[in-house]
Amino acid sequence: MRTMKLIDVTLREGAAIRGRELTFKEKLEIARSLDRLKADTIELAPIGGSKAEELSNSTIASMVNSRISACVNIADGDIEKTWDSIRVARKPKLNLLVPVSPVQMEYICHKKDKAMLSFITEKVKECRYYCEHVEFSALDATRAEKAFLCEAIAAAVKAGAYKVTLCDSAGIMMPQEFGAFVKDILSRVPELSDIELYVEVSDEMHMAVACGAEAVSKGATGVKCTAVRNGYPTLEEMIRFVKMRGADLDIETGMRVTEIHRVVTQLEKIIMPQEEEITRFSNISLPDAAGVTLDEKDEIGEVIKVVRQLGYDLSEEDNAKVYEAFRRVVTKKHFVGTKELDAIVAGTAMQVPSTYKIINYVINSGNIITATANILLEKDGESKRGVGTGDGPIDAAFAAIEMIIGHRYELDDFQIQTVTEGRDSMGSALIKLRANGKVYSGNGLSTDIIGASIRAYISALNKIIYEEEDSPRSV
């Protein structure tokens, strides 16, 4: 009897499920729960430049018995840094994410077929230098040219990959088609005879479970799943398939079937609180875009539609900048939520000269005194000081700025969050001010969250002033 293996990608897709990053504590709890279920592999997202991501990877790697797989984007992933983040794992693995369809190869890697094959060989060998276990994931495989896909898989296996994953990233195949596709690849690539072949299927047409089951029946070793519903087959659905049809297909699973429902229920409480409702872009029916997630398939028109629903009215030039930044983010994270899109707009659209600059600020606050803020700004070489009071230090700081500029703008939105872990964590603030019917956003970073909020306010303010002084320019 064959054992169907299940690779869990909940932590890889965690940010996409909730529209914001999972906290360090939440990641650890999810990893512990999946380890208790005896998931064959727990897959982690590619790390960016954040030390917090490296820390969470290394902590998870040190505490679980399941195999830990860290993803690396072939175009810009740091293989050495990724390896260092999981090297303490009992069973570490590097998963090289490689676009294989013509469009994605040129857009992400800027390479044609021949150059891409050499690139794949080079990167797999580099992964193999650090780690004995290397997986090759062929992204968008169902839209690749079949001959090239077979060559790419063969090249990866020859370079040292010991597992291969075929991804139907678009979710465009019917179950029988996908099963035939998997069978055809197995017959065309003799190098796969001693290699474990996995599938990753998007649930775009709500057929991912059937496609995964068909692939396993045609020779695939396993399926990539999430613990909660998020556009992929779920662990519970695949285990139910094995329970109901496994005997007929001579298939079993090594996971703890009796515990799956209880653990999944716990994870749903962690990952998707009831008050949060995340929807796909195609399901938007409300006038606002709260809770929307965008992915790699969304074109510029869809992205800008969400930008407008967030309240922004940008120029064509700024729309292009926002979409370009969105593409850079989504190719690494796969999904972008509205909060991330807000930050992208704040950081890329309508970058203007700094009319107001922060010189210094002093904040006094406590539970027995009224919060006060004393802020010194500079405008055109002239220092301007303002003093404000408020319900808290940030409210007082905004009041001091308004005293300096002599105007009070409507605060459309205000978000703060930490972007790194620890006592010296970096804080991020996003401010959206409304002026003349338009929304202007500003972003601020600082180890001091009050300082980050002041910087974000000044950033948005400078955009308003720039447009008011340059009225012919359209935002």
Can you walk me through this structure?
- It is a single chain.
- This protein is 43% helix and 24% strand.
- The protein has 475 residues and is an alpha/beta fold.
- The strands form five sheets. The protein has an eight-stranded parallel beta barrel, surrounded by seven helices.
- Helix 15 packs parallel to helix 16 (449-469).
- The termini are far apart.
- Principal-axes shape call: elongated
Indicate the mean pLDDT: 84
Q: How many strand elements?
A: 19
Largest sheet: 8 strands, parallel, barrel
Q: In summary, what is this structure?
A:
The chain has helices at 14-18, 24-36, 51-63, 79-86, 102-109, 113-130, 146-159, 175-188, 208-217, 235-249, 260-271, 300-309, 316-333, 338-348, 393-405, 449-469; strands at 2-3, 5-8, 41-44, 67-73, 92-99, 134-139, 163-168, 196-201, 222-225, 251-252, 279-280, 292-295, 335-337, 356-364, 371-379, 382-390, 410-418, 427-435, 438-446. With 475 residues, the protein is α/β, with parallel strands linked by helices.
List the helices and strands and how they pair.
Elements (H helix, E strand, L loop, with lengths): L1 E2 L1 E4 L5 H5 L5 H13 L4 E4 L6 H13 L3 E7 L5 H8 L5 E8 L2 H8 L3 H18 L3 E6 L6 H14 L3 E6 L6 H14 L7 E6 L6 H10 L4 E4 L9 H15 L1 E2 L7 H12 L7 E2 L11 E4 L4 H10 L6 H18 L1 E3 H11 L7 E9 L6 E9 L2 E9 L2 H13 L4 E9 L8 E9 L2 E9 L2 H21 L6
Keyphrases for this structure?
475 residues, alpha/beta, eight-stranded parallel barrel, three-stranded mixed sheet, 16 helices, 19 strands, 24% strand
